[in-house]
């Protein structure tokens, strides 16, 4: 069974440009017309010379356009391209303008547009120009470091690492941490990133902060042995460090040595003025390791000495919510919602609680109160979802359209959400139209193709659905979600079961614990007449992910093996939470008319 979408976010932070503003203010004309006038002005002397014939004296040749005029031409052309959502063309024009004018803000904007167009070479060109014009720009160095690493230009990356450490406003230790943070985002180049960090640490081997940064990066890329060596060396060089023991504790948690981690933590917090901070840091590590009981113990230890510690109360609320203890979570977040530190975030989670209870009006009110902070974008998207659930689909769509204007860097994700809301409302044709229009802007965008394939399948346009999924796989052959969706579709709707098996087996190799893929394999085995194998697989999927469609499949496999009582139990439980699910109801009606 195909899983839902979760699009990723791209960086795009355009900056204002004084040349564009000056040109538009002086001309007071529509931008397209302004460009045509400027082009006419630039070309007019040339055309006049051509009309005068070839006998004109060389002394009467027209003067070349000024550098400022040429810069303005490229800037205005870039603005038109940006307005038409053509970031690559816009970036090319702005970079050409930089041949005639020195403007670091323009170079920064060109770089960001090139990044949003996923043009690495153009982005690197823009960033190099940016750094040349603004040698102290940390952002330009960040871009060059990461793009050079991806391109295999290790020396260029190392040069930027050295400069970030040397010139960081927080000092060398912060510089090392900054580099580690940047490199930690290059998961596809983890080995190169670790070698680069090792080379950087070798330049200052007596600095505890350098080893600490290397340990953080190694832990991020799951090189636990390197992380432990780095943490212990950082602690040896600076026994009074407050950060190295917490890093070492994190390494021990990752290794599963919780007793040693507890001991190290207790030694660290003894008579420490920052006991609460250390315990809270340890708690976050325990939560990441799914050690909820140990995490609760640490939070209660914090609250024993600081009953009004908002961070501890907030984290306990998150644990309660994750464990399904909605009443306890609501009480904690309600108490925090009037405070300055966690008030906005608490309203977000109060909305999540109301949403889980199908209290859509209440959820809508809570999400509306989230007007700042890290959750504001997701809260607004969920507000649109609540509007759709309340039958206010036009308002939901208007909210998402406004968000696309406000956050163009996540426009594809917002199109996906809008299409899902249309599909949930039964507006399949409109959903198909929306995705097709979006794909005209974002050609072959995998998230949009995948989402459109789901709509096409629901409309039984199976050839179109298959074409969309294969287009995704052309761009991303190891996309487990697309492999699974295509394999499942072939297993459900066709007779190409051998091909379906190859696709689902590959998806299972990539994501062996994903319940939707296990469900697909179970349903394929059922279609192949191997009901007992199907029951075993579907039981695993249902235990982890008791979705109504998984329940429908599991119940039918049980029914086929003669275990009809258990099949009815599975279906009855699923009907309690999803009484109108089409696949579930069709299955029950077909087998129990």
Shape: globular
Question: How many strand units?
Answer: 0
Give start-end ranges of low-pLDDT stretches: 4-59
Task: Compute the separation of the termini in Å.
Answer: 25 Å
Please, how many helices? Answer: 33
Descriptive account of the structure:
By secondary structure, the protein is mostly helical. It has 33 helices and no strands. Helix 13 packs antiparallel against helix 14 (about 260-270) and helix 29 runs parallel beside helix 31. The protein starts with 17 loop residues before the first helix and ends with a helix. Mean pLDDT is about 90; it is low at about 5-60.
Question: What is this structure's SSE topology?
Answer:
Blueprint: H1 18-27, H2 31-51, H3 67-83, H4 87-97, H5 104-116, H6 120-133, H7 138-150, H8 154-167, H9 172-184, H10 190-201, H11 208-220, H12 224-237, H13 244-255, H14 258-269, H15 275-288, H16 292-305, H17 310-322, H18 326-336, H19 343-356, H20 360-368, H21 376-389, H22 393-406, H23 411-424, H24 428-441, H25 446-458, H26 462-475, H27 480-493, H28 497-510, H29 515-527, H30 531-544, H31 548-560, H32 564-577, H33 582-591
Helix pairs in contact: 2-3, 3-4, 4-5, 4-6, 5-6, 6-7, 7-8, 8-9, 8-10, 9-10, 9-11, 10-11, 11-12, 11-13, 12-13, 13-14, 13-15, 15-16, 16-17, 17-18, 18-19, 19-20, 20-21, 21-22, 22-23, 23-24, 23-25, 24-25, 25-26, 26-27, 27-28, 27-29, 28-29, 29-30, 29-31, 30-31, 31-32, 31-33
């Amino acid at each position: 069974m195909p899983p839902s979408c979760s699009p990723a976010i791209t960086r795009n932070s355009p900056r204002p440009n004084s040349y564009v503003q000056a040109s538009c203010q002086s001309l007071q004309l529509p931008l397209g017309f302004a460009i045509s006038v400027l082009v006419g002005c630039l070309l007019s002397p040339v055309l006049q010379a051509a009309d005068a014939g070839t006998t004109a004296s060389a002394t009467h040749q027209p003067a070349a356009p000024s550098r400022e005029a040429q810069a303005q031409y490229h800037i205005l052309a870039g603005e038109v391209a940006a307005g038409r959502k053509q970031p690559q063309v816009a970036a090319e024009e702005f970079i050409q303008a930089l041949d005639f004018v020195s403007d670091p803000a323009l170079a920064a904007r060109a770089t960001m547009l090139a990044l949003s167009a996923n043009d690495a070479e153009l982005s690197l060109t823009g960033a190099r120009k940016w750094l040349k014009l603004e040698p102290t720009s940390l952002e330009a160095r960040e871009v060059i470091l990461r793009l050079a690493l991806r391109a295999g230009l290790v020396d260029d990356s190392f040069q930027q690492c050295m400069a970030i450490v040397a010139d960081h406003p927080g000092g060398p230790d912060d510089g090392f941490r900054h580099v580690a943070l940047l490199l930690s985002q290059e998961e596809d180049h983890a080995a190169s990133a670790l070698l680069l960090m090792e080379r950087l640490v070798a330049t200052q081997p007596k600095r505890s902060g350098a080893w600490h940064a290397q340990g953080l990066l190694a832990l991020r890329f799951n090189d636990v042995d390197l992380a432990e060596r780095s943490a212990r060396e950082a602690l040896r060089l600076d026994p009074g460090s407050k950060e190295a023991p917490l890093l070492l504790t994190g390494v021990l948690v990752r290794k599963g040595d919780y007793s040693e981690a507890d001991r190290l933590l207790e030694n660290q917090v003894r008579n420490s003025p920052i006991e609460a901070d250390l315990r809270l840091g340890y708690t976050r590590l325990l939560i990441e390791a799914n050690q909820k009981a140990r995490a609760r113990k640490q939070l209660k230890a914090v609250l024993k000495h600081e009953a009004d510690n908002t961070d501890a109360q907030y984290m306990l609320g998150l644990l309660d919510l994750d464990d399904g203890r909605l009443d306890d979570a609501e009480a904690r977040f309600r108490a925090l919602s009037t405070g300055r530190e966690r008030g906005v975030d608490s309203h977000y989670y109060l909305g999540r609680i109301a949403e889980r209870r199908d209290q859509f009006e209440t959820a809508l009110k809570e999400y509306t109160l989230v007007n700042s902070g890290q959750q504001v974008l997701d809260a607004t998207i969920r507000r649109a979802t609540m509007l759709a659930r309340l039958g206010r689909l036009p308002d939901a769509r208007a909210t998402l359209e406004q968000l696309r204007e406000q956050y163009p860097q996540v426009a594809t994700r917002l199109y996906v959400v809008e299409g899902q809301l249309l599909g949930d409302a039964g507006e399949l044709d409109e959903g198909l139209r929306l995705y097709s229009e979006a794909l005209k802007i974002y050609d072959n965008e995998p998230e949009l193709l995948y989402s459109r394939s789901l709509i096409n399948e629901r409309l039984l346009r199976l050839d179109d659905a298959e074409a969309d999924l294969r287009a995704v796989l052309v761009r991303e052959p190891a996309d487990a979600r697309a492999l699974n969706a295509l394999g499942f579709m072939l297993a459900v709707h066709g007779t190409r079961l051998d091909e379906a098996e190859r696709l689902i087996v590959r998806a299972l190799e990539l994501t062996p614990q994903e319940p939707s893929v296990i469900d697909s394999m179970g349903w394929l085995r059922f279609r192949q007449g191997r009901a007992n194998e199907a029951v075993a697989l579907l039981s695993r999927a249902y235990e982890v992910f008791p979705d109504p469609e998984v329940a429908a499949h599991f119940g039918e496999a049980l029914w086929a093996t003669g275990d009809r009582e258990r099949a009815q139990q599975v279906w009855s439980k699923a009907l309690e939470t999803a009484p109108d699910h089409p696949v579930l109801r069709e299955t029950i009606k077909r087998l129990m008319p």
